From TrEMBL:
This is MerR family transcriptional regulator. The lineage of its organism: Bacteria, Bacillati, Bacillota, Bacilli, Bacillales. InterPro entries: DNA-bd_dom_put_sf, MerR-type_HTH_dom, MerR_fam, TipA-like_antibiotic-bd, TipAS_dom. Residues 1-68 form the HTH merR-type domain. Keywords: Activator, DNA-binding, Transcription, Transcription regulation.
């Protein structure tokens, strides 16, 4: 089938399929007139790509796995199925927590901390392996252990503090990443990270770069405002360079 039909069947945009072709992730046969033609095998590979994307894998990592001669499609499907079941179960628990919270707010009553935070699990970080690879096992392991040792309500408080800090940083965007206000808040972010982990200035600088390079982090950061990821990247680089020099 041609690209328009393939996109409609898979529920993705034509632009997405063009991008996959450009990066060599999914390259269908091209007719003399320049039209892309997708075979059944191409669509099977597209399905694999979308399963991995649903689980948060980077396109570069998906390409690496699919091009591996040892890649086992059946084994991959089994792993994807199990991972998605776990994700579904966690989301179901969070939905139940939301429904119970709504009922409590409307009808009155109280919820225990266990009920209020049921479904949240900050110890299960889907990016942990990638973080260890990029930033070093020691820093991530320390941060993970420190957060795991906290009660659930304390973990929630950490997330709340992080949101407040990022909101404050977002308000500094108009003044520029090198402004005193931005650098003061970035210093607070650096100290915050080193309370729950062990980040060197170089690792801190690398973390800022990932905010822009990795579309998953980019998407999360942009909720604080368009261009926030780039702003953080530059502000963290300036702060880290100041510590290194």
């Amino acid at each position: 089938m041609y690209i328009k039909e393939a996109a409609e069947q898979a529920g993705v945009s034509i632009r997405t399929l063009h991008h996959y072709d450009q990066i060599g992730l999914l390259s269908p046969r091209t007719e003399e007139q320049g039209y892309r033609v997708y075979s059944d095998e191409d669509l099977i590979q597209l399905q694999q790509i979308l399963f991995f994307r649903e689980l948060g894998f980077k396109l570069s990592r998906i390409k690496e796995m699919l091009n591996d001669p040892q890649f086992d499609r059946d084994a991959a499907l089994q792993l994807q199925r199990q991972a998605l079941i776990e994700k579904k179960e966690r989301l179901d628990r969070i939905i139940q927590t939301i429904e119970k919270t709504i009922k409590t707010e409307r009808e009155g009553g109280t919820m225990t901390n266990e009920e209020r935070f049921a479904g949240f699990d900050f110890s299960s970080n889907p990016f942990e392996s990638e973080a260890i690879e990029r930033w070093g096992k020691e820093a991530v392991t320390k941060m993970k252990k420190n957060t795991e040792d906290l009660p659930v309500n304390k973990r929630f408080e950490l997330e709340k503090n992080l949101n407040e800090l990022f909101s404050k940083l977002a308000r500094c965007m108009s003044k520029g990443p090198a402004s005193d206000e931005a650098q003061t808040s970035v210093a607070e972010w650096y100290r915050y990270l080193n309370v729950i982990g062990d980040y060197s200035p170089r690792a801190f600088k690398g973390l800022g770069a990932i905010y822009v390079e990795d579309e998953r982090f980019l998407r999360n950061m942009e909720q604080y405002g368009q261009g926030f990821a780039q702003f953080m990247c530059e502000a963290m680089e300036i702060y880290a360079d100041g510590l290194l020099n």
